[in-house]
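quick one: succinic acid bound model?
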Amino acid sequence: MKKRLATVLSMMTTLLLGLTCTAGAAEKPNVAILATGGTIAGSAASDTATTGYKAGALGIDVLINAVPEIRNYANVTGEQIASLDSKDMSDAVWLKLSKRVNELLAQKNVDGVVITHGTDTLEETAYFLNLTVQSRKPVVITGAMRPATAISADGPMNLLNAVRLAACPAAHDRGVLVCLNDQIDSARNVTKAHTTSLAAFNSPLGPIGCMNDGTPTFYNMAARKHAGHTEFDARNLSSLPYVKIIYGHANDDALFVDAAVRAGVRGIIYAGTGNGSIHKDAESALARASEAGIIVVRSTRVGGGTVIPAEQSYIDAGFLDGDSLSPQKCRILLQLALTKTTSRSRIQKMFHEY
Ligand code: SIN
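yep, here:
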């Protein structure tokens, strides 16, 4: 009953706060910007180079000072959490970032957080935070497809828009948001869908809103449990359970499944064909893994749609369904689920709730 009342109150707050946000409030909000590296902080040898640059070369102060307009919307502070090419993102940096975001948002005088990040694993960090941030205040992740030194770099406008969004009361209680190229996506649904285009991000279930000439405008809600409504807490964790993804393909076999089992994984995400279908030779190996207590989750390499119960043999083997999460997001949810329980029914429920 209490829970239902809290949900209704939270929805009413969102409605009262409106679906858009305009600049010019009397008192500017305080937004903390945390930098982790990426192309948005990338530096190339020439202003026409859009590959072959060093990601994460520029510090947060350089990024903030390049966009003085940010200060029209918020009082900002900058902090360097890491200086990574995001392909090298680690559980250790996630834990550090999650702890810092939680610390900052627990402070009365912090209204929102922006994180600058490489685009390659941006969606994974966004989802990890969506599952581990205890606050409903806005958290926005942004990045860039062109290095800061390029002609027509996209980073400055993306950073400005991310700050506008984090400073906007309408962004309250929408889960972690991803904002690039004038689009607002929810952490759960967004994925990088193009290798080089400025319009690199896409949500197969639809974006949550957009930046209309700099004004955040929302059209959809984040329906699944998200930041501020989560049972996962990374604040006291120093590591995460070992979970690997195995990519299904024609002529697959047991090689990688058996290797993962020998390496001591606690969970395997199988990025299957179609509706999470598994090659028969890999399936036998996964059934043995499942029998040995390893949690196996069926996901799909398709890039859209929901993995739903299919073959009876999958059910008999105790394989779980990854719902509409991509394999890389299934991995994160399973890592966090395994910090709470090894019960398959509880973990399956989490896949239907988050
Ligand atoms: C990275 O992910 O750090 C490099 C690529 C990018 O930011 O676009």
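The chain has ten helices and 14 strands.
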